[in-house]
Amino acid sequence: MRIVPRDAGCTRIAGNNPHHAVFGGGDVTTLANRLKPLRDLFARYGSLRVIAAVAEQLGLVHRPSLPPPIRGLDDAAYARVGDVIDALEIRAAPNR
């Protein structure tokens, strides 16, 4: 197993899909470039709201998953998150 630096964006999404994060392989630069659209969403909307939307779209939690007064993403941003997770082929880890 190769140990790579913990980029904040990588560790946020790794929490939703730890199997791929550990066994996915690849080089750090390639992974960082591939995750740029996700990091851009974090920068624009905040990582908490984006990761909540990812978890919702993966079926890990029900929408809305954030407690008041925290608001989830609007429909357009929510759809953009869906596009990004589809492009990145992010899937929920199988139950163990």
From TrEMBL:
A molecular function GO annotation: lyase activity
Presence of the UniProt keyword Lyase in the record: yes
Lineage of the species this protein comes from: Bacteria, Bacillati, Actinomycetota, Actinomycetes, Micrococcales
Protein name, UniProt field: Dihydrodipicolinate synthase/N-acetylneuraminate lyase
Keywords of the record: Lyase
